[in-house]
Write a structure and sequence with these properties.
- This protein has ten helices and five strands.
- The protein has 397 residues and is of the alpha+beta class.
- Strands 1-2-3-5-4 form a five-stranded mixed beta sheet, covered by helices on one side.
- Helix 1 (10-28) packs antiparallel against helix 2, helix 2 (46-56) packs antiparallel against helix 3 and helix 8 packs parallel to helix 9 (293-313).
């Protein structure tokens, strides 16, 4: 089954038409390459002219085949009076074969034409033994090697331009990926801050409001409303601080909340949890002060979220918070009674555990959370180990 031929490019059609019309005009004016002494007469030069014009239609779609056939045509043209248009169209076929042909052809054709030019020059010089024979070599080089070399230069320029365009597209794609990742990371960071800042207060509000509605006791209702008001005020303050960060136009994407909490605030955090109705025991070991700000903030948030979860889900009993230093790490360990809870409870979404795990992973630490069996029954424990580089101790920013 014959292969379908591609339609000639419109520019190739124009080149073929101009070459054919130019050759006919030169023939009509009597301008030929030779005034006589050729085997074939005047009209025969039109045959190679028309054949070469037809091959110009293949200069893009089949450049190597057009060059091979064009070489035979230009040889046949030497037996006629010859046409300058035929010769010029042949040089264009050489140029097109290098420019549009395969990479192997683009490397091979300049070398071949250079060797042909040298061989023709030496051959005619040895034959005529006159310096004028060098002109034949020059003409051969202009017809064959010069267009091939020009094609190499243009092809290399196009390939360099295409490579630069591809590199620019890849750079733009990588920049867009980096921007997208930065946006996702920033959204995740702000989501963690929003959850950790507000969840504790809203959980206390939900639990105490449920108790006030469920129990018909004026004293209990008054205490619940007091706790609700305190947590509402503190929650609003945290929200204002977070909104201020979101509206900040300084461009510092790594900035943490103003006056970010540290481990020195664990005592106040525990007292707040006790005010909300949670019995908490706090143990802070030696050497936990002066740690890098990201580590202290992560440890504080892990304790805060653990106490929030205990307030929402723990059964009756005492929750325990222990923070101490080990070799090269800060360990945070929070336990609370685990089991059925009598009384009001707030629903959970699981975002707190995700946030604690993300905070630990950002510092290349380890995080564990889940139920365990203790001496007093089942407990829920949260354990995080945050690596501490001794060289960074005492650095607050």
């Amino acid at each position: 089954m014959p292969l379908p031929l591609s339609r000639p490019h419109r520019d190739d059609v124009r080149i073929a038409a101009v070459g054919l019309l130019g050759g006919l005009l030169l023939w009509a004016l009597g301008l030929t390459n030779s005034q006589g002494g050729r085997v074939l007469g005047d009209g025969w030069l039109l045959v190679p002219l028309c054949a070469m014009a037809g091959l110009e239609l293949l200069r893009r779609t089949a450049p190597q085949a057009a060059l091979v056939l064009g070489t035979l045509v230009v040889i046949a043209d030497q037996f006629t009076l010859g046409s300058l248009a035929t010769t010029l169209m042949f040089t264009d076929l050489v140029y097109a074969a290098v420019l549009y042909g395969t990479p192997a052809a683009a490397r091979r054709i300049p070398v071949t034409t250079a060797l042909i030019t040298i061989a023709v020059t030496l051959g005619f010089l040895a034959w005529f033994r006159r310096p004028e024979a060098l002109l034949i070599g020059v003409v051969t080089g202009l017809v064959s090697f010069a267009p091939a070399a020009t094609g190499v230069l243009v092809r290399n320029h196009r390939e360099a331009a295409e490579s630069a365009r591809l590199r620019a597209e890849q750079t733009a794609l990588l920049a867009e990926m980096d921007r997208t990742q930065a946006v996702v990371a920033e959204r995740a960071r702000m989501a963690r801050e929003l959850h950790d800042m507000v969840a504790n207060h809203l959980s206390a509000i939900a639990i105490h409001s449920t108790a006030a509605i469920s129990l018909d006791d004026p004293r209990t209702t008054q205490q619940a409303l007091t706790v609700i008001r305190e947590n509402s005020v503190e929650g609003l303050a945290e929200m204002r601080r977070l909104i201020g960060i979101l509206r900040d136009d300084s461009g510092d994407s790594q900035r943490e909340p103003v006056a970010a909490p540290t481990l020195d605030g664990l005592g106040a955090l525990v007292e707040q949890s006790r005010t909300n109705g949670l019995d908490v025991a706090l143990t802070v070991g030696d050497g936990v002060g002066g740690l890098p700000a990201p580590i202290e903030l992560a440890a504080y948030r892990i304790v805060q979220e653990s106490l929030t979860n205990a307030l929402k889900h723990a059964s009756h009993g005492t929750a325990s918070v222990a923070v101490h230093r080990t070799d090269g790490a800060l360990t945070v360990w929070v336990t609370s009674p685990y089991g059925d809870l009598d009384g009001p409870r707030a629903p959970g979404s699981g975002a707190g555990l995700i946030g604690m795990r993300e905070r630990t992973a950002l510092l290349h630490g380890t995080f564990e959370a889940g139920p365990e069996s203790g001496p007093d029954g089942k407990i829920w424990q949260v354990r995080a180990e945050l690596p501490v580089d001794p060289a960074d101790e005492g650095v607050s920013e």
